[in-house]
Amino acid sequence: MAKLKLAVYWTAACGGCDMAMLDMGERVLELDRVADIVLWPLVADFKYSDVRQMEDNAIDICLLHGAVRNEENRQMAELLRQKSRVLVALGSCACFGGIPGLANFFDRQEIFTWVYLESQSTDNAGGVCPQTSARVPEGELTLPEFFDTVLTLDQVVDVDYYIPGCPPTTEMLWQAIQTLTGDQLPPKGTVFAGSKTLCDRCTRQKEGKSITGFRRLAAVDIDLQRCFLEQGIVCCGPATRSGCGGRCLRANMPCRGCFGPTEHVRDQGARLVGAIAAMIASDHREEIEKISHLLPVPDDPAATFYRFSLPHSLLKRKRKENAS
Amino acid sequence: MRTKTDFEPLLVAFLCHWCAYTGADFAGSAGIKYPASVRIVRVMCTGRVDPLFVLKAFREGADGVLVSGCHPGDCHYVDGNIKAMRREPLLAAMLEQLGIERERFQLVWVSASEGEKFARVVTEMTDTLRELGPLNLKGGEQLG
Description:
The structure holds two protein chains of two kinds. By secondary structure, chain A is of the alpha/beta class. Chain A has three domains: 4-100 and 149-181, Rossmann fold; 105-147, no CATH class; 198-305, no CATH class. Chain A is 29% helix and 14% strand. In chain A, 40% of the residues are buried. By secondary structure, chain B is an alpha/beta fold. In chain B, strands 2-1-3-4 form a four-stranded parallel beta sheet, sandwiched between helices. Classes of the chains: A alpha/beta, B alpha/beta.
């Protein structure tokens, strides 16, 4: 059998998914036995022009990690979709927007003003901000356009499969790769993770969720066996997909929601508001208000509940004042 | 895009069957006037109003969302309205972070006999929304 052609590419991401690939250890060599790598910026020097010259559908499997943040990301997503038989959204950024998606609480102008003009560590006397095109004596210089809004991969191109996680576990990755390189492909849209919520899979002791205040993890002695929520510590388990094996929970850290919502949850934040609010042990409006404002990240429920999924959420971003 | 000058607010109201919806009915049969801005969605209990419903109403074009049901202690299902009450501050805070002003989302108790209160709440909220201007979430999707 001819070897498969594999591409791995990143857009707006930290590279942690690449690291997760390498963390597969010697299994990477097994991967090499069944597939030729035709693009993988982390490990080999391929050029965009190499990809452009390929026939359509020449790549058998393309693992793309990262959100779509600028025009270069979008063009590469479109190019790789055209050249790939199977396109996989790898990691939380590609699946839901991930941490880069938190930039959707701002727009381009606000981000440029802070990053290039106002932040304390910036020395930019000329007030230079990125532009798509600039004339210099040597000619014209160009940069990809920076978008107002971070997008998920499937908001830009058609996606076949999803491997969530920040980063995905090596076990999940290896299973997904074995399945994708096998004879029979799973149905389109398959998510290579659990189907139930993390809460459903969690083995910590649960006695009853009734709390009179939220607490910061660092500020309390936690019961190492007991459910975080019951101790007043915000955990995203009730609305987050399982499949991670509870790696954070085992290290006594509450879930931050990186596997995104389950199949039955359209909006992770809305579900978490419901789940967290239901625990508040008070029937009095003022008291409920007081407890609610004791969230560990003061006045920041949106970023706590949508930490990895803001672009994927129902509202996608903070409202733009002059939306058209 | 709707502008502030040419604009009639759209208010989506989730009303509980036993109290607020009956209250709205009472307002109608008593001939009490209230603005036509309101679109009523009858639910069995305010406890049934998932935060997702509120987000979806805004997403689909509402300028304001009103959730209204029985006064605490009067819930037909004992404590459904208390559940709604527990969700309110967190949801409101989250909406504000997403650029949806606090005034656009309200939870108000209206009993079956408070037709006048219902009319007043809808009138006041409509006036507030007119002041705030259109939300324009629907169609504001040019994401690039």
